[in-house]
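A note from the maintainers: we've had questions about how concatenated examples are separated. There is no special marker in the raw files; a new sequence line simply starts the next protein. For clarity in this README we add a label.
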Amino acid sequence: MTDRGNTRIHKIDEEYRKELSQIIQYELKNPNITGLISVTKVNVTNDLKYAKVYVSILNSKNIKDTIAGLKKSSGFIRTELARRVNLRNTPELIFELDDSIEYGAKIDTILKEILPKKEDKN
């Protein structure tokens, strides 16, 4: 049973999110990784063996190739993370697509279409 209220784990999640964002944005040189990649959330297990990394990808040529590129580069990313964050263990990174930003933009577009029509009726 995981306890996300654990302050230490929460601090590690945030530190990893910050560092992973920097590594992915500035250190990665993989040509398969395209678009604007944002690390939206990191969930580290209580034993610090695994970290689920949620990424949002915008303006990518191919989102599947970008996720595959991140997974392929996970060894390099993990090594950089270990160098930057001084903990005994560095977790194995599991990349997941977070489409919440894209979903929010879609809802925003729909609302903008609906609202002017509503104002015309009044």
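[label: protein 2]
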Amino acid sequence: MWIRSDGDSTFVECRIHPNASKDSIEGIREDRLSVRLSAPPIEGKANKALIKFLSKNLHIAKSRIAISQGDKSRIKVLRLEGIGLDEVLSGLGLTLSP
């Protein structure tokens, strides 16, 4: 499952596609959230762009988003503090498939 709740945090597994023409959420691909970022994967720029992009879409502070796994990988697990599963899905414009 690409998204799960644990206490007051929500964890999201995603695959990053850097150097895209624009920042966007592609949807769920291979049981991961697929995110296109215009930032290059150099010196943490894509990681910063990902946090900024999600912060804007989910309307939460950047400090409440952390990369818990995959700092140097295209596949990452993000920890979103103080936001529920339903709020994340709504902010990303997605629904859980049965």
